[in-house]
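Appendix B. Raw example, untouched.
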Amino acid sequence: MSLDQSLVIKEESPFDRAVVYLATALFALNIILVSVIVLSRQIEGLEVQFLQPFTRYSLVIAVYFGAAVASRNDQHISIRFVLNRIGETRPMLKAVLNTLSSLAVTVFLAITTAAMATATLTNWERGFASTNLVSPGHVYLGICIGIAIMGIYEVLNTYSNTRKLYSLLNERSVQSSMDN
């Protein structure tokens, strides 16, 4: 079993490109910041300790944007092995489980986005002890945006899975009416 590790997006839109570019830029920024921090340790008198918390927080945000890209490409962790086994013998059950799991993920992401929005607003002014550049609210905002983008893609996945299920139900009803 091989996994597609490319960043190629199905039916690419400007929104999809923006998400991929932003995720890539965040990871590239992290590589640059970590490199600067490591190199600064080799140069006497160069202090860039203020970058460490910023680097840590930007990595957290980048992970959520990377997860949004994986969600868009339908490459996130799921129960595919079990669903594929079920789908060989029971395609209707597979479609129902796909739809239910997509719906559950969508609901979870909606609740998580709402919680992160609340955390963003309540922590916007509060500062970290280690830096004044970034507040917890800024970090929560980045995470909230990443989760919201994942939610958008999961809504699209839920819609697609629901259409597949509807199509299978229509085929089944047509088949049963032809049999009668």
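End of appendix B.
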